[in-house]
């Protein structure tokens, strides 16, 4: 496969907006058509599904709160401590960003106090409690993952549950996980587990218009799935990468440092997460997946530019890629299931 030389592609400096002009009537009409198409292809979950997810989260919250009381009591703490023992559930990922489709998983984080451990209590007692619940199916603990996770379905809704153990003795219900001081003296896995929620909150906090951000991200996610370039594990870009790129791209380069770190220098398409510790979220991108994505960006750009001058419709942009279809058939897998996999 012939690779383009880097100087063959036009470079755009992203520190300033490309344009601050108001939308034209043509832009407004294109936006209306795009929103209609996004509804037609069912990118939005219906009201019943949204309510069901909220109920599942409410039930999960009750379960983990019962769990923390149980383990606190079992460890011999006094009544007052058992009474105060608490954990809080946060959501992150596409659900928290408000861009999840009808069948997407819910990424959740359970934050607990210093006496509640990941190994014994989370992957031990909570796992046992979950295994006995009739609402819980397909329970898979993955304690050895880079970010340890308990995967399960709760009344049919896929949940990824992480655990972070803070240095606090009690966890307030209104805990602010964005505070940098919370990271003091935490174990590495807790820092990694907190990172997803902190990143998601930061993105939502920093985008100037959340609704426009959500619509754009939903559209980009649909386009990249249709064109076969949505997958972190396959070396393309996944949910977090597209979210950072749509939000503001190349800000926040503090921690990732190609000058000081040899490994950082080798990254081909660094997309840096916005909270400390900043990491490159797209380390799987290879020369060949980068090339395929550059072709897709160019194709998308040409179609969007043509829409200003002739009747090319959104359907052309979202046409499924032949490469993607062939790839799917070859592997004989449901690619949407693969997209849900964690890195
Ligand atoms: N490579 C990564 N680097 C940093 N954070 C990551 C990475 N992969 C996942 N995360 C964190 O985990 C969250 C959930 O990841 P996930 O792959 O489920 O993406 P998502 O945005 O929820 O999209 P999807 O709808 O496909 O599940 C991300 O929003 C991000 O905060
Ligand atoms: Mg997710």
TrEMBL record:
Keywords: ATP-binding, Magnesium, Membrane, Metal-binding, mRNA processing, Nucleotide-binding, Nucleotidyltransferase, Nucleus, Transferase, Transmembrane, Transmembrane helix. GO terms for cellular component: nucleus. Mg(2+) 1 binds at residues 105, 107. ATP binds at residues 92-94, 105-107, 160, 230. GO terms for molecular function: ATP binding; metal ion binding; poly(A) RNA polymerase activity. Binds 2 magnesium ions. Also active with manganese. InterPro entries: NT_sf, PolA_pol_cen_dom, PolA_pol_NTPase, PolyA_polymerase. Its EC number is 2.7.7.19. The chain crosses the membrane at residues 229-253. Residues 16-207 form the Poly(A) polymerase nucleotidyltransferase domain. Its cofactor is Mg(2+); Mn(2+). Its main location: nucleus. Mg(2+) 2 binds at residues 105, 107, 160. GO terms for biological process: mRNA processing. Residues 212-247, 250-319 form the Poly(A) polymerase central domain. It is found in: Nucleus. PANTHER family: POLY A POLYMERASE, POLYNUCLEOTIDE ADENYLYLTRANSFERASE. Belongs to the poly(A) polymerase family. This is polynucleotide adenylyltransferase. It comes from Lithocarpus litseifolius.
